[in-house]
Write a structure and sequence with these properties.
It is a single chain. This protein is an alpha/beta fold. It has one domain: Luciferase-like domain (TIM Barrel, Alpha-Beta Barrel), CATH 3.20.20. It has 11 helices and 11 strands. The strands form 2 sheets. The chain has a 9-stranded parallel beta sheet with strand order 3-2-1-11-10-9-8-5-4. The chain has a two-stranded antiparallel ribbon with strand order 6-7. A hairpin with a 2-residue loop joins strand 6 and strand 7. Helix 1 runs parallel beside helix 11.
Length: 306
C-alpha cells in the first residue's frame, strides 16, 4: 500500500502559518522523508462565503502549489485532491498537466471529479447541469491533444482544428476519477487508472449530492460493483488503483490516535483492493502538521512496510 496526504488547508479561517513559502517547502519535504508517496491540494477557485462559513475550507490553486512542491522534492507524487474538471477549459488543463508532469519528471497523477458546489459553478460561468457531459468531453480532449499531433475536436465551447500542442507527457499521467456514484465507477472501468471515493456520512450526502459512504461495508459494496464493471470492460483489475483512508484508530495528530488500530483498519482496506491510503493531518499550525507527518511515518508507514 502507498500513502498520500493532503495539505492541511482544511478549515476556514486557515492558519496563516500554512500560506508561507517555508511552510509548503517544509511540509512537502517532511512528507517525503516520512515515507509518504503522494501529496495533494484541494481545488476551490471560487467558493461561496456561505459554504466557507458552514464547514467549507480555503484552498490554494492545486496546479501552482504542486508545481512548487515538485521543485523542492525528488520522489513524491503530485496528486491533486481533487481537480473539478469542468471548472476549466480542457485544453488549458491539458497544457498545465503536461507542463507540470514534464518538469517534475513524470510525477503527476491527474485526479479529477465533477464537483458539487452549484455556487462555484455559477461563479465560474459553467452550467452545473452539464457537468457530467463536460467532464466526459474534457477527458476525451485532454487525452486526445496529448496523443495526436494533428488534433481536431468539435464540442461544447471547443472548436479545435489541427492542434499540435507540446510537450506531450510520456507516458500519460494516470487518470484517477473521484466520486461515490455508480457513474464514477463506470468511468473508471471504461477509461480510468484509479478510483478515489470519499467518506460521505449520510447526514451530508444530500448536500454533496453523492451516495453515502460511511463504513467498510459501504466501500466493499461499491468495490464489488467497480470490479464487475472492470471485468465487463475486459480490463485487468490490477491496473486500477483505489485510494481511500480509514477512520480506525482515530485522527492522526490527536492524543487519542492509536497506530495499531489504524494499521488494522488499513489491512481491511488492502483486503478489499485499496492500493493507496489517504490521510489528513491537523491544520491548526505548521508545527503540529509537521509533527503529525513524522509520527505517522514512524508509527504507520514504516511498520506497514517492515
Amino acid at each position: 500500500m502507498k500513502f498520500s496526504v493532503t495539505y492541511p488547508l482544511i478549515a476556514h479561517p486557515y492558519s496563516p502559518d500554512l500560506l508561507k513559502r517555508d511552510a509548503l517547502e517544509q511540509f512537502s519535504q517532511t512528507a517525503e522523508r516520512s515515507g509518504f508517496d503522494g501529496i495533494g491540494f484541494t481545488d476551490h477557485p471560487a467558493p461561496t462565503a456561505k459554504w466557507l462559513h458552514s464547514g467549507g475550507h480555503d484552498a490554494l490553486d492545486p496546479f501552482v502549489a504542486l508545481s512548487f512542491c515538485a521543485a523542492v522534492t525528488e520522489r513524491i507524487r503530485l496528486i491533486p485532491n481533487i481537480v473539478v474538471l469542468p471548472y476549466r477549459h480542457p485544453l488549458i488543463v491539458a497544457k498545465m498537466v503536461a507542463t507540470l508532469d514534464t518538469l517534475s519528471g513524470g510525477r503527476f497523477t491527474l485526479a479529477v471529479a465533477t464537483g458539487y458546489l452549484r455556487g462555484e459553478y455559477k461563479a465560474l460561468g459553467v452550467d452545473f447541469k452539464q457537468r457530467n457531459a463536460l467532464f466526459d468531453q474534457a477527458v476525451e480532449v485532454i487525452r486526445g491533444v496529448w496523443s495526436d499531433d494533428d488534433f481536431t475536436y468539435e464540442g461544447a465551447g471547443i472548436a479545435a482544428a489541427g492542434l499540435a500542442a507540446n510537450p506531450k507527457p510520456s507516458p500519460l499521467p494516470p487518470l484517477w476519477i473521484g466520486g461515490n456514484s455508480r457513474q464514477s465507477r463506470r468511468r473508471v472501468a471504461r477509461y480510468g487508472d484509479g478510483w478515489t471515493p470519499f467518506p460521505a456520512p449520510r447526514a451530508i450526502s444530500q448536500t454533496t449530492k453523492t451516495p453515502p459512504l460511511e463504513t467498510v461495508e459501504d466501500l466493499g459494496e461499491m468495490l464489488d460493483e467497480l470490479w464487475r464493471f472492470v471485468d465487463e470492460a475486459g480490463r485487468d483489475r490490477a491496473e486500477i488503483d483505489v485510494a481511500f483512508g480509514t477512520p480506525e484508530g482515530g485522527a492522526p495528530g490527536s492524543e487519542a490516535f492509536r497506530p495499531d488500530a489504524h494499521l488494522w483498519g488499513l489491512q481491511k482496506l488492502v483486503g478489499l483492493g485499496v492500493t493507496w491510503a489517504h490521510t489528513s493531518v491537523p491544520g491548526d499550525s505548521l508545527a503540529h502538521a509537521l509533527e503529525t507527518l513524522q509520527r505517522y511515518g514512524e508509527t504507520v508507514i514504516a511498520p506497514s512496510r517492515a
